[in-house]
Amino acid sequence: MAIDFNQNFFELFELDYSVDINSEILEKKYLNFQKNFHPDKFVNASDYEKRMSLQITSHINEAYKVLKNDYLKSMYLLKIKGYDIDNQNSTISDPSFLMHQMELREESDEIMSKKNKNLKKDFFIKLNSLKKKFQDDFKIKYESELFEEASDSIKKMKFYISIENDLKRNG
Amino acid sequence: MALLQISEPGKSQDPHQKKYYVGIDLGTTNSLVALISNGFPRVLKNKEGSELFPSIVSYKKDSVIVGEYFNDSASITFSSIKRMIGKNIKDLNSSDFYSPCEFIGDDSIVKFKVFKNLLTPIEISSEILKHLKNITEQTLMGDIEGCVITVPAYFDDAQRQATKDAASLSGLKVLRLLNEPTAAAIAYGLASKKISKIMVYDLGGGTFDISILDLNDGVFKVLSTGGDSSLGGDDFDYLIVDYIQSKLDIELDSEKKHILYLYAKKIKVALSETEIVDIELEKIGLENTKLTFSRDDFNLLINDLVQKTLKISSEVLLDANLSVNDINEIILVGGSTRTPFIKYSVKNFFNKEPLSDINPDNVVAIGASIQADILSGSSKEELLLLDVIPLSLGVETMGELVEVIIPRNSTIPTSSSKEYTTFKDGQTAMSIHVIQGERDLVSDCRSLAKFIIKDIPPMLAGAARIKLEFQIDADGILSVSATETTTNKVTSIEVKPSYGINDSQIEKMLKDSFDNAHTDIKSRHLNEAIVEGKRVILSINSALKIDGSDLLNEKELKYIYKARDELEEKLNSGEKESIIDAVKNLEKVSETYVSRRMNSNIQKIMKGTDIKEFN
User: Fold this and answer.
1) How many other C-beta atoms can be found within 10 angstroms of the C-beta atom of residue B221?
2) How far A140 CA lies from chain B's nearest CA (Å)?
3) Domain A9-68 -> CATH class
4) Is B471 close to A58, i.e. CB distance below 8 A?
5) Would you list the domain boundaries of chain A?
6) Cβ contacts (< 8 Å) between A27 and chain B: which residues?
7) What domains sit in chain B, N to C, each tagged with a CATH number?
8) How far apart, in whole angstroms, are the C-alpha atoms of residue A25 and residue A45?
9) Verdict on whether the full-model pTM lies above 0.95
10) What is the spatial distance between Cα B148 and Cα B140, in angstroms, rounded to a whole number?
11) Chain A residues with CB inside 8 Å of B513's CB?
């Protein structure tokens, strides 16, 4: 019983390095891993096997989470290329985007205070399409190996996600 | 289908050597045991022929009796102990806490003074399990080799750990803790479905739980849960009592009220079969008064409570980002779902016929028995359960903020690690505070555990690297380990249930996290600004101490001091903006100093270094 913990998530799931991974393969592999390694399969096994099963499934679950989520996956792709955005200063220096950020924050604050469901729904749709723009942008930059520019797209995506999360938590 | 039991010659086992795997529904009011026998689930009966074993524990001076209520002075009787397991007094609300005797409740688990012993809810629960174990082994004439015990989906780490502890105290080997709604779905054989979203509506005597499960090719996930820990069928009975009292315009004494209450239960059950009942008021001494009570009257009475359950249902849907139409199956669990109006209302709300063929009292135990059978390896059925954690886990960081390490609804088992660093030069210890909850501020969440990492090698602030690793196993139980990565110093703890929150508090905490997100964000931003301000002051002070007077002239020093003092003053202002401005100002004023420091440091490094090494 073993998986190679040194493999990156794409290697582990035998997927191409891309934002658009084959989700059928992902799901199939994930289930397969779980069916082979889940602690439920090792209820009567030795302590060592139990511990291995725990570590392997934890790793698989983490990999699956990253590969399922476009934003996390994009960050991970860049990390493989040596651009660790998670541990980087994520400030955006583009002044027009900063303006845009402020406007969106204001809009979000207003929606939060109004508690209007339809307004919120529309705003989420708007955020999604804005996010999608940078997701597409990321893909182009990444595929052209413009990793600095690709990082910039992710940082912008991150802003939409954080505004989305804040608003979601507000009910 | 009748099955003939035929055993191969010579293979027939001695009945006393038989090994069984059972499912146990350890309930608040009643507990059940089920097992798979000849391919079919079988729910065990007690000697009175009932499948429900009351979760009541009575202590006498020299003995323990489970399942019977003793009201005499020679007995100490506990009921609904499940409400208290894995919690401390501080975390229990009054409706959940009841002590029939003296007790000690400090910061840890409550201890009841039962004659000469001090007993925790874990030990009391273990008596119920011990009782179930004995009855089962007597009935089956064999041993329980392993069991699956069900727990509410919202049970947190401490409550799960406590349940497991109770099982091991009773001598049971727990193969797995299983979420109650998941057990219900397994009982209905939904595991064989390809893709499905399942809502489990569980209305018992005293609690209401609702969960959404996502089933995908044999993989179950709990998407979201909610409920009300003080809403159940008993409330319906009280409503009937109130109704009768108001109709008769009398106030009954407590004894008659109790008689009426027990009678109300019967009326409720009767109304599931008939449209109208004559209320026998002779029971409470009213010979000549007549009163009828119809199903419509009843429905009207309970309508508010039913609507409340549906409101909670829609909140849980919202939490899972789903709408009513996304739900493929609804399962009714708990005796109170026998009420026709509930069936009708649920059906209407979801626009779908709910599943209710299996006895709603037994369904959870049956599911657990199927899971036990699969885990024992004797079943050919392919079933894999992937659960999620109900509440986020994190640690306290500077400024009393919670940093989430594992977000709620993460599939388990899961692990996650984060690196932290020291705040001060030469810091050798660090306190780690593990938090559970959804809010941004520590004070609004629940404290799970505190531990201290000692012997961090003294280094400059920010040089030590403390890696915290959170591991949650398949039962949802957490262990935390910490390592200083530059020296590989490891300290590890198992998070033990020293604190606790109750179900309604979990619900409240979740709800608050939505209601208060706005104020949270504000106070979070303010706290972050204060922390940043303090950090800047600390680092400038320690730098100035080292080489301030060497690198700066008096005038330059004065500017920096002024900017620093201004920031110090602003820290207490409660205004995020002015703190940030003051930080920026201090940083700006110190710019020359910082660059001189860097130059001087490089020169220091260069000194005594052979120039060749730089080539």
Assistant:
1) 17
2) 30
3) mainly alpha
4) yes
5) 9-68, 95-169
6) 216-217
7) 15-188+358-386 (3.30.420.40), 193-357 (3.30.420.40), 393-514 (2.60.34.10), 518-606 (1.20.1270.10)
8) 29
9) no
10) 17
11) 169
